[in-house]
Amino acid sequence: MTAPLRLGIAGLGTVGVGVVKIVRSHKALLTARTGREIVITAVGARDQGKDRGVNLNGYAWESDPVALARRDDIDVFVELMGGSDGPALEATRAALDTGKDVVTANKAMLALHGQALAEQAEDAGRAIRFEAAVAGGIPVIKALTEGLAGNEITRVMGVMNGTCNYILTRMESAGLPYDAVFQEASDLGYLEADPTLDVGGIDAGHKLALLSAIAFGTRPDFDGVDLEGIQRIAIDDIRQAADMGFRIKLLGVARRTGRGLEQRMQPCLVPADSPLGQLEGGTNMVVVEGDAVEQIVLRGPGAGQGPTASAVMGDICDLARGIRVPTFGRPAHTLEAAPAALSGLPAPYYLRMSLMDKPGALAKIAAILGNSGISIDRMRQYGHSEATAPVLIVTHKTTRAALDEAIAAMTGTDVMASLPVALRIEQV
Amino acid sequence: MTAPLRLGIAGLGTVGVGVVKIVRSHKALLTARTGREIVITAVGARDQGKDRGVNLNGYAWESDPVALARRDDIDVFVELMGGSDGPALEATRAALDTGKDVVTANKAMLALHGQALAEQAEDAGRAIRFEAAVAGGIPVIKALTEGLAGNEITRVMGVMNGTCNYILTRMESAGLPYDAVFQEASDLGYLEADPTLDVGGIDAGHKLALLSAIAFGTRPDFDGVDLEGIQRIAIDDIRQAADMGFRIKLLGVARRTGRGLEQRMQPCLVPADSPLGQLEGGTNMVVVEGDAVEQIVLRGPGAGQGPTASAVMGDICDLARGIRVPTFGRPAHTLEAAPAALSGLPAPYYLRMSLMDKPGALAKIAAILGNSGISIDRMRQYGHSEATAPVLIVTHKTTRAALDEAIAAMTGTDVMASLPVALRIEQV
């Protein structure tokens, strides 16, 4: 039998402890499957004294992640600290520098520094694996990089922030406004320390940037992701969408267009009876479309100790088995720097706005849309008691640029009571 | 760059031609991803003269698959002929014997001879890959063998015969009886030459046997699959199930129990609002449950040129990249010969029967169920004009053995107008 694969684990939060548990409880199973023993040599975290509910006595302790990464008695540096820069990045670099493979769950670090790290890994002849960074327990990185390698990928879509999907589906099922459900999610501990990472779409945007790189052979480009959060979604939007057979999801969409790489992470309307539309609560879903495979849908838990540790262990088992694939599916120096196609292909849009209740208000809005070349599929003005009138418009296919032009013109009138909410209707 | 990977393709039906098309059209993409050129050296099929819509001029032609497999100018033998025995098996053995890796879509061959072939491959230091054999384009073999390798798998379920799912969902949507939709499916060319392979659950049973082997580390055991087809499902069953919030699926379920390996491929009731219950038409779905990952759902096209060729190409790309994993996820000689636990864990059952319209008929049936220790959750007798009365019973949890005992006792009475239809209600 081959020598044991020796792990050094930096970060002992939920996921780190989950990995330790699996390595301890599935010793024989992992050896049977990979042909090697998988052992933990060293671990480290900020606070050594904390009781983590798992026995760490047999492992060397390293408070300094860089020192952990540099130890010569580990083969794989398992980075589970998080944070795009700082210690996680420094330790990852140190690990590659000293000949270790790296397994990480750190989407922010890879979305921002993935290109440089992939190049460093390649120069050093080492691997970086990050299944746990995208969509928790779903083995989507593997499916996209390996299983679907015979396809030209035409579109990747995903609901990849469980907290946002929890908030949106809970608003609908409980009939509660955004603020109330946001508070609930906060009380339940579902939100990141900086909640904008979740509800602003940043966390999901990091994940999308990683999927795009693999799918389209482009450099990970988080700055090129058109980001929009769910903060302005009202219970009214959810109800109106449902009336028309849609549900609202914080949906990531990436595709290559003639004008460059389109990456959007924004609330969209999707058909209620599609797999994406049916997705409830904190579950994640990734949809991959390729020229041969047509459409594959992957669904599973997007977070949590077990699922995320499962993904980390999948990467570790691959390394134990000698499976080595370039970080983003092809050599890092061959990844293209594709321009960002921010506006996206034309699509129908949902528009909700409040108009001042005065004669000719609706006509003004309709005229502005017409002037921007946007034709109206449906329009409704609702009964109301206040001085403002809620109006709902569904457009025919238009570009986001034309829509933004129209919205700018609307705000220049004296009939708008608030900025419109504009949501793309994505064909899925 | 490494030397090209040279393919010999035996079988030029839909899938074989699909593979040729991808190799030809995605030359640069495949090389970029795998770091090697992938080339076709030789092909073969029964009829050389047939126009297959793709240019085969550059490839050597071998009518004899064994001769093709033995050629010393191929690295990978791609077996796309089908058939559990005969030429496919002989050629696969010849390929391994002469140092080739094998990629196959042949579920029947592997379900019946997988153990022997895996051992032969291992002894020869070669690989057998079969992503295309299970659930078409869905990369489920990879997900189960590699992505989820850190899990103890607790249950695998799947709707893996698109024709059966087409028939069942079409019966429901069109309100047509089984025979009419069977004929439709036949006219559309959806059925195998021997349709029992589809509607009798045999094809799906082969696939389940392969998934079980990987999931539970057991020898592929098709004979241990409790097989039941969809031929006796009536439109009434589908309607009654829908009334109670269920849909009927030809569902494969495998799990390890204290008494051995449970493998069932049979029509089951599943909740209508579950991913399995929502599955329409010819689409396939596999659900994998593991102790860490909880539940992963994979959905995609289960057949067709593009999707199946995509799966074959995934395997070929893996071989080009040097990825080698034991056939069933661990060395073949370590796979256990687990006894078959045919009866399965207790579950609620749906029972539909026709009783003779005479006094005390229903009471007799109820008494028989009681005598077998089966308690009744719901029972309905429907209005009727004929001499027989349709009766529907949903039981509380019971074993299949107790139910079979009760059904045998029922048929011994003089009140049964026909054999009952008994369908398990699977918790998903």
Tally of DSSP β-strands of chain A: 16
C-alpha geometry of chain A: elongated
Q: Compute the CA-based radius of gyration of chain A.
A: 24 Å
Spans of chain A of at least 5 consecutive residues whose pLDDT stays below 50 are: none
**Averaged pLDDT of chain A, please?**
95
Q: How many H/I helices of chain A?
A: 14
What is the H/E order of chain A?
EHHEEHEHEHEHEHHHHEHEEEEHEHEEHE
Which CATH C-level class of the domain at 152-301 in chain A is it? Alpha Beta
Measured between the Cα atoms of the first and last residue of chain A, the distance is: 48 Å
| Assembly category | homodimer
Let me know the largest β-sheet of chain A: 10 strands, mixed
Here the CATH topology of the domain at 152-301 in chain A equals Dihydrodipicolinate Reductase, domain 2
CATH superfamily of the domain at 152-301 in chain A: Dihydrodipicolinate Reductase, domain 2
Describe this structure as you would to a colleague.
- 2 copies of one chain form a homodimer.
- Among the domains of chain A are: 152-301, Dihydrodipicolinate Reductase, domain 2 (2-Layer Sandwich), CATH 3.30.360; 349-425, 2-Layer Sandwich (Alpha-Beta Plaits).
- Chain A is built from 14 helices and 16 strands.
- The first copy, chain A, has helices spanning 14-25, 27-34, 65-70, 86-97, 107-124, 140-147, 162-174, 178-187, 196-199, 202-216, 235-243, 305-320, 361-371, 400-411; strands spanning 5-10, 38-44, 60-61, 76-79, 101-104, 128-129, 153-159, 226-227, 246-257, 260-271, 283-290, 294-301, 349-356, 376-381, 388-395, 421-425.
- In chain A, the strands form 2 sheets. In chain A, strands 7, 8, 9, 10, 11, 12, 13, 14, 15 and 16 form a 10-stranded mixed β-sheet that branches.
- In chain A, helix 7 (162-174) crosses helix 8 (178-187).
- The mean pLDDT of chain A is 95.
